[in-house]
Write a structure and sequence with these properties.
This protein is an alpha+beta fold. The protein contains 18 helices and 19 strands. The longest helix is centred in the middle third of the chain and has 37 residues.
Length: 630
């Protein structure tokens, strides 16, 4: 069964059970400053699990796009992905364990057609110290469901120590495996936090594949959670029935259900392949990489096959991130878009792929999700092409330089040390790769590991801090150069520049940012990012807004805070990446809030009348404005 059929069957089946189907949210979570990405299907459901009423009722289902940045380095095996889809259904104090488990069992065995003999489940062992009982209720429901399918299902405890016995299908585990809350174990839950036992569902690829014997878990008991590759978690039912109160964990007045099933993994189980990259969600991409490289993909543990998987996963993730507005950059979300693109390009280089492929790959990804999601195709392809072209200019030279560095270190050491490393790639050298060739730190670290050379993380971080300090010094110098002096008139014009920037952002849009300035006692010259000529009408609006703030005689407030706090307060800044950990923020009423290190007057009433005297082009995408005070 292909992924579109599985996705559609899931949504239609849950719709029959009274669930309202909601669309997938963006990979960029709305109204949630605590996380960069939507990394689980339940993120947008948290308010309703906590008690807020959902506009569509108490039964909800969807298929949610997700991205997990923490899994980037794991990608390369047969099962890990950065981007994935989570099939989900929720009960907001409506149905509970009995209905949920019946529906999911029926969906997997009847709708998808998975053999119940090859399904295994886990349940919560309990936590006596927190007065949470063993979840025998869930175990009993599973026994009944397996029996209805003609399968004998015994439960077992401590299989992680004793291994699995015949006919054992239901396994108890501690809270590190079968307890869910946003803060982890019951002990870590803050007061007011919801949590509860969960029940995971696994698919068995079979003992005859010898996956356990051929893994690093050989010699240890094989059980569903040993990660040897034989068992594949395909879904998890969370029963939120507890709340943390002052005197411990208590039963919650409402009983919620949160189910999440990985579409990629269910699709892999449906074709009985332990390799998710053999599903229709990846195979067209793998086929394209085969055409470009002239090599064949074999689902093996070889570095070559690992490169196939990294390219397939990261290309798909990059396309979908960019399609949701996450453009490659050095900051926050954009950093991860850049990182997956550049990691994919390095792996492609190893397979002999030297031509740009991200934009054509986007077409394949869009075809895979045709009719499922709507994408800004042209814009996404444009951004991917731009990023790939930028990195390819330095990729070959950067890899060549890296090889020269490690060859030199190997020649110095002469022998391989017992821990497998030949020598340390010094921080100054690794930082050179970062600064000069655009290699992300994690990519340099991975290249070191692949080549048996130790990455000097401490040295790299020290070099990075030195670079930041130099940048701050340079920034201070740029600022001093921006102001001709610290005289009264120059200071007045500097404060006026803050007002003008705030006014420009109001009139033209929040994309307007400072690109440079030169302020003397006679006039201010100010460059801003804006792609078209600013009209006379727009300039007049800016002028009027500034003079309005001057007439209000607003006191200018100065405060010092962390850069992070400044960002939370939506303070703007021209050179954010060059500030230190502590910054000064100047606030002018509700009109302007900027990070700045320069001198300012005390009150806008000291400025006089503001007048723009000229507007012109400075460079591509940058406009220059000259203004005076009288």
């Amino acid at each position: 069964m292909n992924s579109k059929e599985i996705r559609e069957k899931f949504l239609r089946y849950l719709e029959k059970q009274g669930c309202k189907i909601v669309p997938s949210g963006s990979l960029v979570p709305e109204n949630d400053p605590t996380t960069l990405f939507t990394s689980a299907g339940m993120q947008q459901m948290v308010p309703y699990l906590l008690g807020e009423k959902h506009p569509l009722g108490t039964r909800i289902a969807n298929s949610q796009k997700c991205f997990r940045a923490k899994d980037i380095k794991e990608v390369g095996d047969l099962r890990h992905n950065t981007f994935f889809e989570m099939l989900g259904d929720w009960s907001f104090n409506d149905f509970f364990k009995q209905e949920q488990l019946i529906w999911i069992f029926e969906f997997l065995t009847k709708e998808v057609g998975l053999d119940p003999k090859r399904l295994f489940v886990t349940v919560f062992r309990g936590s006596p110290e927190n007065n949470i009982p063993k979840d025998t209720e869930t175990a009993d429901i599973w026994k009944s469901l397996f029996k209805s399918a003609g399968v004998e299902a015994k439960d077992a405890d401590f299989s992680e120590k004793n291994g699995m016995g015949k006919d054992e299908k239901i396994f108890y585990y501690d809270d590190n495996k079968n307890w869910w809350s946003r803060s982890g174990s019951p002990e870590n839950m803050p007061i007011g936090e919801l949590g509860g036992p969960d029940s995971e569902i696994f698919w068995d690829f079979g003992a005859d594949l010898k996956m356990h014997e051929n893994s690093s878990w050989k010699g240890q008991p094989c059980h569903v959670n040993c990660d040897c590759g034989r068992f594949f978690e395909i879904g998890n039912n969370v029963f939120m029935q507890y709340i943390k109160e002052k005197d411990g964990i208590k039963t919650f007045s409402k009983k919620n259900v949160d189910f999440g099933g990985g579409l990629e993994r269910i699709a892999a189980a449906s074709i009985d392949s332990p390799d998710v990259f053999k599903t229709d969600l990846f195979l067209p991409i793998i086929n394209q990489v085969e055409k470009m490289s002239g090599k064949r993909y074999n689902s093996s543990a070889s570095e070559e096959d690992k490169a196939f998987r990294v390219i397939a996963d990261h290309a798909r993730a990059a396309v979908l991130l960019v399609a949701d507005g996450v453009f490659p950059s050095n900051k926050e979300r954009g950093y991860f878009a850049r990182r997956v693109i550049r990691r994919a390009l390095v792996k492609a280089q190893k397979l002999g792929i030297n031509d740009n492929f991200m934009a054509p790959m986007a077409e394949i990804v869009f075809e895979i999700f045709e009719g499922v999601y709507v994408f800004p195709k042209e814009k996404a392809a444009e951004e991917l092409e731009k990023e790939e072209t930028k990195f390819r200019k330095t990729l070959v030279e950067g890899l060549k330089k890296f090889n020269e560095l490690i060859l030199r270190e190997k020649e110095k050491s002469g022998i391989i040390k017992e821990d497998g490393f030949v020598k340390i790639l010094k921080g100054v050298e690794s930082f050179y790769l970062y600064q000069s060739f655009g290699f992300p730190k994690e990519l340099i670290q991975e290249l070191c590991e692949e080549n048996g050379i130790e990455f000097d993380e401490k040295g790299f971080n020290e070099e990075f801090l030195k670079h930041q300090e130099l940048s701050r010094t340079a920034s201070a110098g740029m600022f001093k150069g921006g102001l001709a002096d610290a005289g009264e008139q120059t200071t007045r014009l500097h404060t006026a520049a803050h007002l003008m920037l705030a006014a420009l952002r109001q009139v033209l849009g929040s994309h307007v940012m400072q690109k440079g300035s030169n302020i003397t006692a006679e006039r201010l010259r100010f460059d801003v990012a804006h792609s078209q000529k600013i009209t006379a009408e727009e300039l007049q609006k800016v002028e009027d807004l500034v003079n309005e703030q001057i007439s209000k005689k607003i006191a200018i407030e100065e405060s010092e805070m962390s850069l992070e706090e400044a960002k939370k307060q939506n303070a703007t800044g021209a050179f954010e990446n060059k500030y230190g950990d502590r910054v000064k923020v100047y606030t002018i009423g509700n009109f302007s809030k900027e990070i700045c290190g320069g001198p300012h007057i005390k009150n806008t009433g000291e400025l006089g009348k503001f007048k723009i005297i000229k507007e012109e082009s400075s460079s591509s995408g940058v406009r220059r404005i000259k203004a005076v005070l009288s």
